[in-house]
Design goal:
Elements: H1 4-15, H2 17-25, H3 33-39, H4 44-57, E1 60-67, E2 73-79, E3 83-89, E4 92-98, E5 105-109
Antiparallel strand pairs: 1-2, 3-4, 4-5
């Protein structure tokens, strides 16, 4: 079970506008960071940082590696998050993340 701090970190990643574009962009088919940067008008350095954050949060993964025309090795990323729900109900925040092949992970945020 995830702790409140870990959930809040994941929610912070999801709240970022660049991260949202990257998740949507990699949902249908894997893309490399340079393509995401160009297609979604994200500065290249920010695109690399956001991809790293999304990967650490478990929302994105390397789908394959390939060699570019110039001989450089590049990673192709795909979105693995299938569903994210944030609900405020009866005075409590509830969060649900769903990944392929896994049951839903529902968590209630607790504040002191």
């Amino acid at each position: 079970m995830m702790h409140t701090e870990e959930i809040e970190e994941k929610l912070e990643v999801l709240a970022d506008s660049y991260a949202k574009r990257i998740l949507v962009g990699c949902y249908q088919k894997p893309k490399q960071v340079q393509e995401l940067s160009w297609r979604y008008d994200i500065p290249i350095a920010a695109a690399y940082r956001k991809v790293h954050s999304l990967e650490e949060a478990g929302f994105l993964e390397v789908a394959k590696r390939k060699t570019s025309r110039r001989g450089k090795k590049v990673k192709m990323y795909k979105t693995v998050l299938k569903k994210a729900v944030i609900l405020f109900e009866d005075g409590e925040f509830k969060v649900e993340f769903k990944y392929p092949g896994q049951k839903k992970e529902k968590v209630q945020l607790e504040f002191e």
